[in-house]
Amino acid sequence: MSGGNTKPVKKKMNKAEFKEHCWGLTFVAPAFIGFCIFMAFPIAFAFVASLTKWNGMNNMLDNFIGLANYTKLLTDAKFWKVLVNTIIYMVGIPIGMILGLLIAVAMNRKIRGIKVLRTLYYVPVVSSLVAVAILWMWVFNYDYGLLNSIVKLISGAHGPNWLGDEFWVKISMIIFMVWKGLGSSIILYLSGLQGIPRDYYEAAQIDGASGWNLFRYITVPLVSPVTFYLLITGLIGGFQVFVEVLVMVPTGGLNYSAATVVFYLYDKAFGSNQMGYGSAMAFLLAILIFIVTAINFKGQDKWVKTIE
Amino acid sequence: MKLRKVSAIILATVLAVGTILTGCGGKDSSTTSDGKKNLSVFIFANDHESPIYKGMIEQWQKDHEDTIGNVDVQITTQDEYSKTLTGMMTAQKLPDIFYVGPESVQQFVENGYIENLQPLLDKQGISTDDLVAKEALNSYRYDGEKVGEGDLYALPKDASVFAYAYNKDLFDKEGIPYPDPENPYTYDEFVEVCKKFTKDTDGDGEVDQWGCGLANAFMVQQYIWSNGATFLSDDYKTVEIDKPEFKEALQKYIDLTVTHKVTPTVEQDASLGVYQRWLAGQEAFYACGTWDVAAFMDKETFPFNWDLCAYPTLSTGKSMTWLGTVGFCVSANSKNKEEAAELVSYLCANEDGQKELSGVVGGQSIQLPNLASLAEGEFRTAIESGDLPFPSNVDVFFNYLSGNDKYEGRFQETTYTPNAEWFDEFTANLDNVKNGSMTVDEFVKEYQPKMQEALDNAWDSVE
Question: Which residues contact residue B232 at a Cβ distance below 8 angstroms, ignoring those fewer than 6 apart?
């Protein structure tokens, strides 16, 4: 590919170029058509629906109410509550990144059975989300759970009602999400680490750098593209947390303490047949994700380093 | 080179065409090429129910071979059903026959999705006189203004009730006489009985056997209604949980857990649900829906002897529970309405079909018979002779279904509201009181406005 800084000049294509152009279009077409049908159309549809009092049964366009759904959302205490819940869950993102990096560093050496270890950490990633969520419900179980058995063994006292308590349910969800996502951060960090040239470390060691300084000034900056990628995907995924809640706390938790934005919008749209309202929430969420992602991309120059 | 090019073209075309085609149906599928009528059916059913329905439909198709071509049956789970149906409505691809609940009749009619069955039934001379559950039948009537009156828009697939059950073996073990199905316990009697069951049986200092188990979402209504209270005003527009009789009933419901401690605590419920504890033989009383009978009669699921009884009564002296029903309706856009109506009436009221569904034939009861003649005749004989495994106090079901001076069943109030969010607000947060962190008064004060708001939103969404 030639550089993109020259302005494209419109000129007549010769036959060979035209043919290549057509080939290009042909190969792009499936993805593009798929995008239109499964992404662009639903988004546009959701926007139109969000301006109506559509309940799934009535005629959508006959029930046009303008921006009323959006103004109602702004004063909907439950919406703010689930938004705060969603953001609290994002505490898991930095925790997951730090743990991921540390474990990746530990795994980036020649130890016996390292491949087995790496595979083990990756198992949660490829497991079915629903299945492992059910498994973790048992870990968090008040009387019979693994976690409370350990708590009892260590402290002698009965552990918390993990999924039934307003505070602990959030901790439980964060623990679960970090566990589920750890494998992929480790793998990504590992590949990032392996891309760092050995000589950087050697040069620094000759200059007398300690182990911590090597990590602080070489490793961390040079895996920053991975960190950036994990941050972006983590944030986008974080806003969309749904299945975890649906499986582990199907009612949304005591006083709706575990519900997320997507859980609430699903509940509104499919539980109470307020498709219009649900769509408004979905659209707002899309805008929110867009803004957060844009800010991140804007800020990346400040801290994301690339190896040239 | 050539080969690579060709395969590339094929690959690209297949991908593109494949993407375009998904979602586009087309072509009229209502008749076969030789003029026979095709029908499509969309319902939800449990795994053990599906083969029975499929078999019934196959049989009907065989009996009408000269006029009916294919009957396409799609079965999903109850959870997925309404979402899929909404999708079908949006795509304007409704099957000829599908389920409708009483709560949706009005909306489906007004939005033009379901057909008035009355003229079709009249024309074919199909009578609904023998149907057992009149209240269930009437819930599918709509006269343009009011549900419950006017023409029929669906026929009930079934009518079910949520009765009470007791573990006979536990009663024997504790030496307590069985409850009398003719004379329901009063609340106080019930508490006394339950206290006798609640104990630590293995001596580890923790209670592991209880009088009863209570699940807020479906076991609080019995207490509220029996005290003469309701959740909503008569027009279903106002939340009335702040009325004294409501609060009194709610207090008594809560007391079972907090004061009398005859149920598992909220934490214990969180670790093992009340249903599992009943199946494990840890509770003397638990609710049993008509749909639960087959599972409870199966010794693998529930290895204890059990029978039916009535819920305890509060100030009205009447034992209350809720009824449920789901009905078959015919799509307003169906091209073969007459045939569809005929199949619907077959599924609801055909004697052979009902025999199979109620277990008179086959010995596994999925539902109570829809036909009065069958319910009072062969169904009962089969139970008495032991051919059909069923609790001997089967009358408890029928008493609730048809009502008398000691029994009454009614539809949940959510049946009459556009959605159940206001009710979920109540049941999901009631644990705040059940775990002792809130009083009934505080709960009512905090959640009455929230429920009202959800209810207002619900009504607003259909205006």
Answer: B238, B239, B240, B413, B416, B417, B455
How do strand B151-152 and strand B97-100 relate by DSSP bridges? unpaired
Nearest CA in chain B to A143: B271
The H-or-E segment that residue B97 falls in is strand B97-100
Q: What is the 3-state secondary structure (H, E, C) of A203-220?
A: HHHHCCCCHHHHHHHHHH
Find the chain B residues whose C-beta atoms sit closer than 8 A to any C-beta of A: 9, 12, 15-16, 18-20, 22-23, 82-83, 86, 89-90, 104, 107-108, 111, 113, 266-268, 270-272, 418-421, 424, 428-429, 431-432, 454, 457-458, 460-463
Average pLDDT for chain A:
90
The pLDDT of residue A112 is above 90: no
3-state SS assignment for residue B162:
strand
CB contact A163 to B (< 8 Å): yes
Closest partner residue to B429 among A37, A255, A270, by Cβ?
Answer: A255
Q: Does residue A124 register a pLDDT over 80?
A: yes
Q: Is A58 on the interface with B (CB under 8 A)?
A: yes
- pLDDT, one tens digit per residue, over B2-47 is 556 666 556 555 555 554 544 444 456 778 877 889 999 999 988 7
Min distance B124 CA to chain A CA atoms (Å) = 30
For residue range B227-256, list pLDDT tens digits in order.
Answer: 999 999 999 999 999 999 999 999 999 999
Torsion A122-A128-A131-A133 (CA) sign: positive
- Structural contact between residues B224 and B217, judged by C-beta atoms closer than 8 angstroms: no
pLDDT, tens digit, 9 for 90 and up, residues A70-82: 999 999 999 999 9
With beta carbons under 8 A apart, name residues in chain A contacting B454: 272
Structural tokens at position B280: 């494990």
Site from B206, B461, B463 to mutate, A interface, most A CB atoms within 10 angstroms: B461
Rounded Cα distance, A189 and A193, in Å: 6
Beta-bridge partners for B306: B167
Residue B357: which pLDDT band, with cuts at 50, 70 and 90?
confident
Estimate the crossing angle of helix B421-429 against helix B440-462, to 10 degrees: 160
Please state the rounded mean pLDDT for residues B55-61: 90
